[in-house]
Structures are given as C-alpha cells and as structure tokens.
Design brief:
about 525 residues, alpha/beta, Nitrilase/N-carbamoyl-D-aminoacid amidohydrolase, Rossmann fold, six-stranded mixed β-sheet, 19 strands, about 40% helix
Amino acid sequence: MNICMAQINTLVGDIRGNLNRVLEVCVDQHDKGAHLVIFPELTLTGYPPEDLLLRSDLIKQTAGALEVLREKLPAELAVIVGYPRGDGECLFNSAGVIFGGRLIAEYDKQCLPNYQVFDEKRYFDSGDKPCVIELEGVRVGLTICEDIWHPEPAALAKAAGAQILINLNASPFNRGKAAERLALVAERARSHEMPIFYVNQVGGQDELVFDGGSFAVNAAGALVARAAEFEEALVTIAVDSSGAPEPAEQVATKSDLEAVWTALVIGLRDYVDKNGFPGVVLGLSGGIDSAVTLAVAVDALGADRVQAIMMPFRYTASISIEDAQAEADALGVSLSNLSIEPLYDAFMATLSSEFAGLPADITEENLQARCRGVLLMSISNKKNRLVLTTGNKSELAVGYSTLYGDMAGGFDVLKDCPKLLVYALARYRNGLGVCIPERVITRPPSAELAPNQKDEDSLPPYETLDQIIEYYVERDASKEEIIAAGFHAEHVHRVVRLIDLNEYKRRQAPIGVRISRRAFGRDRRYPITWAWRSGD
C-alpha cells in the first residue's frame, strides 16, 4: 500500500477552498499510484476555528463538504480527512475515512488539549472508542493530535488490531517542538511495536504558525520519512502487507535560528495574504528591531510590497537616518522621510494651556511616538497596507512601548522574540546576505525620544532582563526562585513589577508570531485588574 502524507496549508472557515484543495491533491496522488491519502486535523474547516465551531451553519457546511468528497473522490482511493462532526447535542473533533464513494468509518478525538493555545474542551466532546479499518489488507488505526501524547488511545487502537497508527495533527510551532514530537512518537511506536504516521498541517493562522514536518517511524521508532518544514509537501511511503513502512524521503530539520526566521516569514506572509492586504508599511528607525522586521517583511512579501517610513525628530541621530537608508537600499525597499517636528509642535501648541505650569516628563516622549503612529495609520488607511509594529518581547514585557504610538498597528513580527534573539536573528539574516549595518547590531539600543537616551538607562542589561522575563513569564517562577537562581534582587523586583503592571498595554497590542511555549496573548492570560502579586 502506498500512503501519502498530505501536508497542506488550509484557511480557517474557507470550507470550499479547503475542500477543493483536498480534491486536487487526491486526484493528483491517485494518478501517481497512492492507495491512501492522509490529511491534517480539521482539514475542512482549518485549525483552529475557535468560536466558528459554535455556529450551526459552519457544521452544516462541513457536513455538505464531506458529501461532496464522498461523491467526487476517486473510488479506488482511500482518504482520511479531519472535520468537526455534529451528533445531536455533541460536537466531536473527528477523522473520517472515505473509500469507494462511502464514508466507511469515523473516529472521534479522545484527548482534548486545554492548555497553552489550546481550548478544545470549550467546543468538543471527547470520543471514547478506537477506530481500526482494513485497507489493502493492512489494519489501520486512527488517532488525532493530542491523542498521541497520551498512552491510552494508541493502546486501544493496538488492542483493536491496528498494525499501523495514523495521527492527524494541527500542531503549532515553538522552538524545540520538532525534536520533542519525534521523540514522543518514536517512544509510542516502540512501546506498542507499531509504525506511526504523523501528518501535520503547515502555514500561518493569526499568531500561530504550523511548521509541518510530517514524518513516519517504523515499529522500532526509527525515522523512515520526513517532510519539509514550513511548506506544503506530499510524501509517499510504501508499506508491506504487515504494515511495515519502507524508507522514503527524509528532509533534514532546520537549525533553531533558521526555524525561527522561517516561522516569522511564514507567519507574516500568511497573515497578509490570507487577509487580502496588498502590502505592509512600517516605521524604519535605524534601530535593530525595525531593521529585522524590515528584512522579515521583504523575505515574506518581496520588496515591492513593503514600504518603509523614516520619521525623524530633533533627537534622531544622523547615523540612524543613514542606517535606515542603508537597510532600505540593501533590500530594495522604498523609503520615505517624514519629519514629525511639525506634528509634535502643533500638538504641543494645542496642549499648551493644559500643560501650563507642569514640568516636562515622559508625556512628551510618548507624544513623539504617537505622532509616528498617526502617520503610519494614515498611510495604512489610504493605501490599505498593514502597519507592522516592531516591538520585541522584552519591551512588551516591561511596557517599554507607547500605546497608540509605536504599538499602533496590525501585526508585530517580533512580539514573541526577546531582544537578544532579535540580535541573533539579525546576524543570521546577514549571513544569508548583508542587509543590516554592523553598527546597528553593535551600538547601544535607544528609543531616541530624549537626548543621549539609551534603553539601559531605564532597564537592566538585556542579558539580565531577558533571563528574568523567561523565568517569570515562560516558567512561572516566583521572585524568590528567580533571586535564588542568581539574579540581583533589585533587578528581579523591578522587572516583575513592570511585567505585572503592563498587562493593560499588552492586552491592546497587535498580534504577532508565536515562537515560544508561553507567548503573550493566547498563552499567557493574566487579569488587568488584580491585587495579588508574586512574593507578597
């Protein structure tokens, strides 16, 4: 039997488009000799549909698409596809097997994830039965995504006579996830002495990026096939009468920085394209964050779909203007220079009576950022280009950003990237072709909102800051635990306080690509109004 793992990029809610993609792949693979084609989890609706699943019309349309598949798929081809299945008052995350013009079997996901970005218990009921079918003389068991992370579903399938196990997935990327998946699935295969086919979806969906990397392991847990990461792929594996897979195509996994960079590129590209934007616009300051954001945007969309705006003020260093121009020139991007001096002066004149007798403070700094936000949003409205903000995870954590200023926009490429990772990404991208001047990477970072301003005037060094953020945000460590790990108590108390106080800002920030296990937004959900504090 020839089994094709169909790693495709779906669009949430585009039932007709997803259906047509399934038909296209199946006709092509049937012509190439496939006997079974496996698609990812919830293929017909895309993943995650979120509260679209609460709409009865979505479930009806999905059922209609399933009927179309039954009627139009090649009769000699078996197809396994994922979809939500309504059954009275219940809704299941299901996989159906279509063969010979009939829906011959359905499996309901047993283990529903309800952690990190997942909240499937909000929508689905749990299945409790295995599903094993015979195809081309081989007994095939079905599972869906989270099922493979628990021993019971695979054990039930094995007990029901499965010779191989299929696992349909919509597993999002985070750093280190590919190796973790392979190790877990290999162990499951060894423990049940059964080959496993792990089929994952690919592409960006809002802040999530699905990295594909579908693979198959034999009964000993050895890798026999692996699809490319971050791109659509169709990988065919031959299995013998006992279900044992023969070695097939294996694509090497990407390095950590390469995977992160590709995730940022795919996440941005799919967000822009799937939402129908003709291009993007961003403020290019001559600093490291906007430089990396620009490079990601060009790699994702091409230079002709990217517009950069330099918005200098009296505190903007001449080297910042020079470096911004060098970045734009290196990437072939159009750069406009729009001074915010007239806007700032007009605002200050209008506010003069309100500010009378009050000393200058951070208000004037924030006003500069808000002038820039007004310009970018106006260009966005006029040209229908999506505004990219350029804040990184370190800044968002401690509130080193301005509401309705540098936070104004629709998508933040670096939202889940700590500052030190941004520097590493800059060097990685320069290794592919220099586009970020060396002094942008080496000079002390500054918001340039005041004379001779540097980030470390008001923040701990990023080497310290990023580690404290990781402990507190990603590991949920207490202040006492972080101090015990060797960090200065004053730094810890200050950083934790800033993280706690700035949830109101993060709640209003644009979405951005998730690359860690604990991103702000879908992963980390803290109240804005609260009294408890860590260590109190």
